[in-house]
Amino acid sequence: QLSDLPTDVPFVGSHPLAGSEQSGFEFAREDLLDDKVVFVTPTDNTDTQVVEHAHTFWESLGARVHELSAETHDRLMAHTSHLPHLIASALAGSASIDHPDFYGRGFRDTTRLASGNVEMWVPILLQNREFLLQAVRNFQSTLGEWEQALSQCDSTNLKRLLIEGKKHRDSLGS
User: Fold this and answer.
1) Local confidence band at 1 (pLDDT 50, 70, 90 cut-offs)
2) What pTM was estimated for this model as a whole?
3) Among candidates 83, 80, 62, 89, which has minimal Cα distance to 129?
4) DSSP for 60-112?
5) How many angstroms separate the Cα of 122 from the Cα of each of 89, 119, 125?
């Protein structure tokens, strides 16, 4: 735990948004951090020189550093990382077709995250449980809109939901 660190040990939280569902040295790449975001999460007690060193370190590896609070980081990750992993795993786990050749590319692309390291993901999901539960509830609400539009054969609402999803995804780029 961070609270167990001696007070004279310099520390600032950092989280690179890079990599894939694969883990281990064999998947390391020289350009892994090129133009990738790294969050740096100092506390009120973090020495400014330590924060500056963290910025310099990550930037020297090609990353773009963004500084934010640990709480903002956790809320953001719940929606943009932890929820997608949970959904990919749930979708992969709910599949009921036994023949691997019958799964198309869309299913494979959508469930890629489910191949992540389980031993790493269990503590991540539990440590950010409160923000993740908020994200799950928000997603359930949105999924409820989809269910209602489908059950009512509401093509207008389905189109609106598809346009909304497309607009959000297209704004991310490739």
Assistant:
1) low
2) 0.87
3) 83
4) HTTPEEEE--HHHHHHHHIIIIIHHHHHHHHHHHH-----GGG--HHHHHHTG
5) 12, 6, 5
Dig out the tokens for 2 from the structure.
């961070």
Q: Would you say residue 3 has pLDDT above 70?
A: no
Torsion over CA: 135, 141, 145, 146 (sign) = positive
Q: Which residue has the tokens 């609070």?
A: 69
* pLDDT single digits (tens) 29-69: 889 999 999 999 998 889 999 999 999 999 999 999 999 99
Q: Are 139 and 165 in contact (CB under 8 A)?
A: no
Phi, psi of 61 (to 5 degrees): -95, 5
Distances (CA, A) of 107 to 55, 79, 144: 38, 21, 21
